[in-house]
Design brief:
This protein is an all-alpha fold. It has helices spanning 2-26, 30-60, 65-91, 104-117. α1 (2-26) packs antiparallel against α2 (30-60) and α2 runs antiparallel to α3. It comes from Salisediminibacterium beveridgei.
Length: 118
């Protein structure tokens, strides 16, 4: 039974990472690609590392603290890094895909420019 649970974690992680890779190739702009790379790959890596952690815990009886720290580190840093990359792309003028319906950041940037000019 434990091998089945571990295998499920590993397969889910591999599937999410594969979906992230497909999204990077298929999405039309940098923002969509960034979304695909961050969300699915982060969850995929966390699932794989969780499966490895469970393997060592259940099969070998070892608690590997480094794996837990890695899960926490990836969970905290990947979304922040993606946010900063997306914000940098927006601030440098990287255009959104033509069919993008909503640009929430445009209003905030206009307000910030007005405040800075005053």
């Amino acid at each position: 039974m434990t091998e089945i649970v571990i295998s499920i974690f590993l397969l889910v992680g591999a599937s999410l990472s594969l979906l992230g890779a497909i999204g990077i190739v298929r999405f039309p702009d940098v923002y969509g690609r960034l979304h695909a790379a961050t969300k699915s790959a982060t969850l995929g890596v966390i699932s794989i590392i969780s499966g490895v952690f469970l393997y060592f815990l259940w099969i070998d009886g070892i608690v590997v603290g480094k794996l837990l720290l890695t899960i926490i580190f990836v969970f905290l840093t990947a979304p922040v890094a993606a946010f900063m990359i997306g914000r940098s792309a927006y601030n440098t003028g990287v255009k959104m895909w033509g069919n993008t319906q909503q640009d929430d950041l445009a209003d905030a940037m206009r307000k910030q420019k007005k405040e800075n000019q005053q």
